[in-house]
Design brief:
By secondary structure, the protein is α/β, with parallel strands linked by helices. The chain has eleven helices and twelve strands. 36% of the residues lie in helices and 29% in strands. It has an eight-stranded parallel beta barrel with strand order 1-4-5-6-7-10-11-12, surrounded by eight helices. Strand 2 and strand 3 form a beta hairpin. 46% of the residues are buried.
Amino acid sequence: MILFPAIDLKDGLCVRLIRGDMQSATIFNLDPVNQAKEFQAKGFGWLHMVDLNGAIEGKPVNAEIVRRVVAAVDIPVQLGGGVRNKGTLEHWIDIGVSRVVLGTAALSDPEFVLNACAEYPGKIVIAIDARNGMVAVDGWTKDSGVKALDLALRFEDEGAAAILFTDINRDGAMGGVNVEATVDLAFSLTTPVIASGGVSSLNDLKELKEHKDAGIEGVICGRALYDGRIDPLSAIKLLRD
């Protein structure tokens, strides 16, 4: 399983939110580029980045920082936040982003997402951010009324690299991963699933790893890495072994 360290960008800074609330941002690093280099030096094989401002505004906001991060590290970068059209998607791929995460567009413009999966097989990740089982969009500010599984099934066998499933109520709250919902989703799909939201300890990672055969490719971790609750070397070894 892959452990994706998260770099969330807000106003040019590396932050973490609680349950997606932009007003609850905690700043963990003033220099996201240095943070990316630090994660690479600690042995991580991927980076997961989110342009939080972009997710709200529907267009890239922290684009220059993303470009600098991609240029500064040798490991692949997975990026989401505000990608709503082909021009933005192509820009990120052209500068070297390995996977582009599409979330709101999966509901608002499914044809765009399907075409992206076909044109860039293995480079598109579908983000399904759920609150109480229902998909939230526009930076988690609006509930869509669509069930998470129903949305995931729309993109089955269409070329997506993975489904990124986030339980919003757990995200940043350090309350543990919603393993049951993540495993249920993974069992229902052939597309690999990446877990996100609530990772707070090595025990959370152990529990997820026990269910990797359900189709869980990896897990995203943010706050627990920044505040030292999870030791990077121990976590990477746990998921690799």
